[in-house]
Amino acid sequence: MAVEVAAPLLMLAEKEENAEIREFWDLSKGVTYTMNFPELVGKYCVGVGFPGWLFTADEQGHMNLFHLFSRTLINLPDMDMLQGFAFQEELGCDRITYVQKALLSSDPLSSTDDYVLALIQGYPRTFAFWRPGSKSFTSVDSTIPYCAFSDVTWHDGHFYGVSFMGNIVILDFTSDYYSTTAARVIMSQLPPRVACSNKVYIVYSMGELLVINRDGCHNFEEGDDSYGVKQFRVYKINDSSYEEVKDLGNRALFLGFSATLAVEPPPGCQGNRIYFTDDCREAYFCMERGGGKDMGVYNLLDGTIVPHYTGQSYHKLTPPLWV
Q1: How confident is the model at residue 163 (pLDDT cuts 50, 70, 90)?
Q2: Chosen domain end from 190, 222, 238
Q3: Is residue 124 part of a domain?
Q4: ω into 267 cis (within 30 of 0)
Q5: Higher pLDDT, 220 or 126
Q6: Quick one: which H or E segment has residue 53?
Q7: CA angle 271, 272, 273 (to 5 degrees)
């Protein structure tokens, strides 16, 4: 994604009472907005990289794109159209969270039918794509054996996917060859393993393809909520190698339970910071309150962490996320 001009809002988790009322924290102004969204009650939500847009799924396997500000609803093929999904075998949270990441190539409000939705789905995490008008998803088998993908970004007609081990796959959507049901891998890079981290993110910003490693997501004792960010490392891709970035300049990264964003920070936000939310699903799924603990602002210069939202907001399906 290119550098945005404003910081995203933090959509807080659904509450047990008055579940249709959703709160949004504006960290640049320090205020909370309240809106009524019955369309989101009980839904699993993921930010898709454009202001106000969400990917949503329910327990029946129905999936949609929903725009918060216009209330535009775009129906997607049901979850059973995804390769490898078996409705009767996937139970509870595993079913509704079968899609882990979602990203739009452009804003459907301005691009109408000329956009692509990318999903990271299933186990292991593989790619699927959808274009408006298609009745199914196109699955792309990775050319890297045993490769599970962590995040995806878009730039200039290409999706860039990064695996948990730092491998990068590029998928080209610029040619007329690609229809609503066709996509192919044009290159797979196998750069050196840069770190043994728990989460890996990717974003295109100011002419640079950045890969971010997050350490501290996992805990391995049931009921132990001691997980949390220990360190972030940022790298830029040079050909087939990684170069560590110590200073982002006047850029801030927003990542977590949404598509990763690079933002030119407005007043109230700071550059060279990583604004993160809790997407450590493997850790918080075993806890009754769910996710929402591991949030904050990471200073890339000195490694310090301060909170961005000081309240409490927890949920197993959809913890707070950037929209």
Answers
A1: confident
A2: 190
A3: yes
A4: no
A5: 126
A6: strand 53-57
A7: 90
